[in-house]
Amino acid sequence: MGEIVCVVVITGAAPARVETVESARPAPAPEARRWWRVLRHEWTLVVLGAVALAALVTWPTLRHPTRTIPGDTGDPTMQAWQMAWSGHALRTDPTNLWHANAFHPESTSFAFTDTLLGYAPAGLIGSGPVAALLRYNIVYVLVFALAFIGAYALVRQLGAGRIAGAVAGAAFAYAPWRLAQVGHLQVLSTGGIALALAMLARGHGWSLRHGYRPSHARPGWAVAGWCVAAWQVSLGFGIGVPFGYALALVGVVAVIAWLRHRPPVSRRLLRADGIGLGVFLAAAAFMARPYLQVAEQFPYVRRSWSDLQWSSPPLRGFFSSPNTSVVWGDLHAGVRASLGHRGETSLLPGYTLYALAALGLVVSIWTLRQRLLLAAGVIASIVLAMGTQGPGGGRYTYGLVYVLPGFDGIRTPGRLVVWTTLLLGILAAGAVTALARRATLRPASLAVALLPLLVVAEGINTTGHPTVPTRPAALATAPAPLLVLPTGATIDGVPMLWETDRFPAMVNGAAAFTPPRQNAIREATLRFPDADSVALLRESGVRSVVVVRAQVVGTPYEPTLDGRVDGLPLRRVDTPDAVVYLLEP
User: Fold this and answer.
1) Four-CA torsion 351, 352, 356, 358, nearest 10 degrees
2) Residue where a domain terminates, one of 426, 457, 488
3) Do 157 and 205 fall within a single domain?
4) Is the CB of residue 198 less than 8 Å from the CB of residue 147?
5) Cis peptide before 94 (omega within 30 of 0)
6) Predicted confidence (pLDDT) per residue in 425-437, tens digit
7) Heme among the record's keywords (predicted)?
8) 425 neighbors 157 (Cβ within 8 angstroms)
9) Mean pLDDT of 297-312
10) Looking at the 3D structure of the chain, how many domains does it have?
């Protein structure tokens, strides 16, 4: 019904009469009110805000998403191919998922590096290099949004306030160290870690503020948390292996705590944990099997203790920012120089985060015991992330986890900074919530509300977005198996991306290591076309070699542009953008 309005009419001395009329303005429809409640709900605002913030901080990723790619054209183009291949394999022949078209004639080549398999559903949409680029750029932006949402959800479940959730989300998503990982989507994809922990905590009715409350348990959330954890592991073992062990540690602590107090646990929750854990273990086993096969075939893919010397960061690395940071990049040039040529050793979580976490040791909604445990976790994660640079050469720190299955496949211990950042965020959330409750004056409340912006500011960057080279027309019809020149571990991502429409068997391939046969072909084709290189290519089943004119200039493969085929079992075809050599079977 409409609103009822009372109208009082007074005329002279006559008694006042009251008239009731129905307003012409209709009341909001129930459906409209329902949608309005949904739109202004906390989680709607968090999701929409996280996506908008991610698009802004990663700009100009979405300005030309079908032509450019963030970081460089090395690993990102390879990872764009990964998503495309997984979607293509699931759509056409799931049984050959692990036998990718790259690295011909090797088998199980999809497991030569972290696969990002969890993004396969995105790979089902569209085909070809343009779709692959667009897909990658959209996922790249959403990765930051999910990291924000996951950390926000976790600290809210633990008992912190909304502003504290925004601080933790911003810290986890935009920590300066992430700028050194823009070419490693599997390392940036950490949102599932925080989100899974938040769901599992909610499912078990547990928070830091209130502990375990059986009446608040939600078995459905527990199953969802295990499923998200399984999805996180499917993105890559470099981040997934430590996450798996962290879940095991949390489980052990939870069981010990239960044995001490024996609170009631519903059968529904136990069944939910059984189902969820089964899903998680099945996903982990499915992912592990091909990697174990690769490790058996190529034993050198396991990282030896001496291999870690180069990639282990010293303590000062946790106070150094990558050069693309707008705030700290130039200021930390001297510190970066002192790190030498070690890769991925600028691991600053953020000075604002450090300050808020330090404040959280003094002022917080968490108990003193909880604060001390969180601080101990921060210190332990830093010491472990230092690898061989830790106390005593790391033998009794990172060396203790290095012997666990899976850790010998992790290239750099520094990626454990993910856990440093998350624990600092939780510690800081306690302080921010306490400050927000004490801020009774408007200026103080405004200062607290601006803290998330200070955290985000340290993540503002000057990341490059190079244009991906255009695919030569000759590649559309070149017989497979084929080889594209130039070739190399850091440039093969581009030809892999180019062939995401028909996925022909190709020698080119970029991964965490180089198989011996691929290396032999690369070295032999430096003299192509000659008798030895042609013989090796024919022995490997290669039918065509495509020399890309614009890409080969200035490389050791440039002489192949003028190669002569006299007396050799191959035919030369010149096109405007490439030279194609067709080999006789």
Assistant:
1) 10
2) 457
3) yes
4) no
5) no
6) 999 999 999 999 9
7) no
8) no
9) 88
10) 3
Phi–psi pair at 477, nearest 5 degrees: -125, 0
DSSP character for 274?
Answer: H
Question: In angstroms, rounded to a whole number, what is the distance separating the alpha carbons of residues 389 and 311?
Answer: 9
- 108 DSSP β-pair partners: none
Q: Which domain holds residue 36?
A: 4-43
What confidence tens digit (pLDDT) does each residue in 206-252 have? 999 999 999 999 999 999 999 999 999 999 999 999 999 999 999 99
Same domain, 216 and 360: yes
* Domain identity same for 260 and 383: yes
How far apart, in whole angstroms, are the C-alpha atoms of residue 192 and residue 308? 27
Q: How many other C-beta atoms can be found within 10 angstroms of the C-beta atom of residue 177?
A: 28
Do the beta carbons of residue 303 and residue 238 sit within 8 Å?
no
Pair (437, 482) in one structural domain: no
- Amino acid symbol at 431: A
Q: What percent of the chain has a predicted confidence (pLDDT) above 70?
A: 95
- Going by C-alpha positions, the residue among 460, 518, 516 that lies closest to residue 487 is 518
Q: What is the pTM of this model?
A: 0.91
Question: Residue 452 and residue 100: Cα distance in Å, rounded?
Answer: 43
> Within this chain, do residues 446 and 534 fall inside the same structural domain, yes or no?
no
Residue 524 within a domain: yes
What is the rounded distance in angstroms from the CA atom of residue 293 to the CA atom of residue 487?
A: 26
**Is pLDDT of 20 > 60?**
no
Largest CA distance in the chain: 123
